[in-house]
């Protein structure tokens, strides 16, 4: 059975959303995991057997041993087989560029070897984690390494506070927000706001808000119960047809089909951010 451990950063909560580990105590059969987009970048270390990723559920390729991934606009499929042990870092949307030192839009819809952005030391980090017994120890080790990287870049991004504010406002309202209001709160022109958000989050604010709206629905355990029209209205969907179109665009399937087939592991990932 797959185990899932999630911890919060000790001192880097402004820049890191959480740490997580996925592993099985005994090597098991192949598991397919349908993961929704988070709208953020993950740094993932593989301490186990190869894990494959696909955009369509049929064409898979193995993820690198240390990957930068997760900045997708729609769902991805992960295939686990054998001994699974992944350790991940979920960056705060709007802060990941401080670590990779480039526009987040460049990482959109890609899974790449993290050493290209963070240096080959990330493979040394993986070796160090393999020697630690608990998942929380692994998470704290990663936080200490990332803190050193951050100390070299912090203060160079003058617009970061505006982006973090905009992202938090989107989450507070579960994606039901007028982007024009965010622009005004940031005291920016529409064009400047769009460019700033896209460069630092990796996608437009409207698209990011749509992902958060769909995930807010999926995270509600009563989403398929009778009379959830009020929930859709609270999330800003005008009717079921409007919601179904948005849901299918991000998940690739209908709300009923997705939630009825939701596996425990996929549900845990839905609540990462």
Automatic annotation (TrEMBL):
The protein's name in its UniProt record: AraC-like DNA-binding protein
Domain of life: Bacteria
Keywords on record: DNA-binding, Transcription, Transcription regulation
Phosphoprotein is among the record's keywords: no
Entry keyword annotation includes Transcription regulation: yes
GO molecular function: DNA-binding transcription factor activity; sequence-specific DNA binding
Domain HTH araC/xylS-type: 161-261
Source organism per UniProt: Pedobacter nutrimenti
SMART domains (alphabetical): HTH_ARAC
Pfam families: DUF6597 (PF20240), HTH_18 (PF12833)
InterPro entries listed in its UniProt record: AraC_XylS_family_regulators, DUF6597, Homeodomain-like_sf, HTH_AraC
């Amino acid at each position: 059975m797959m185990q899932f451990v999630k911890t919060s950063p000790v001192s880097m909560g402004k820049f890191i959303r959480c740490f997580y580990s996925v592993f099985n105590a005994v090597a098991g059969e192949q598991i397919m995991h349908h993961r929704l987009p988070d709208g953020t970048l993950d740094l993932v270390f593989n301490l186990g057997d190869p894990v494959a990723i696909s955009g369509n559920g049929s064409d898979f390729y193995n993820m690198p041993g240390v990957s930068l991934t997760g900045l997708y606009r729609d769902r991805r499929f992960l295939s686990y087989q054998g001994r699974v042990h992944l350790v991940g870092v979920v960056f705060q949307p709007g802060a990941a560029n401080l670590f990779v030192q480039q526009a987040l839009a460049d990482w959109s819809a890609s899974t790449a070897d993290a050493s290209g952005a963070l240096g080959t030391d990330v493979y040394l980090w993986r070796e160090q984690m393999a020697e630690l017994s608990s998942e929380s120890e692994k998470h704290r080790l990663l936080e200490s390494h990332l803190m050193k990287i951050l100390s070299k870049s912090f203060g160079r991004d003058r617009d970061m506070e505006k982006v973090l504010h905009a992202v938090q406002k989107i989450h507070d309202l579960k994606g039901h927000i007028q982007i024009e209001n965010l622009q005004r709160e940031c005291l920016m022109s529409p064009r400047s706001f769009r460019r700033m958000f896209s460069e630092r989050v990796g996608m437009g604010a409207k698209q990011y808000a749509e992902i958060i709206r769909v995930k807010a629905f999926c995270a509600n355990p009563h989403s398929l119960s009778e009379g959830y029209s009020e929930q859709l209205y609270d999330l800003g969907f005008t009717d079921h047809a409007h919601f179904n179109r948005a849901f299918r665009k991000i998940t690739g399937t209908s709300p009923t089909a997705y939630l009825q087939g939701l596996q425990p592991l996929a549900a845990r990932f839905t609540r990462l951010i």
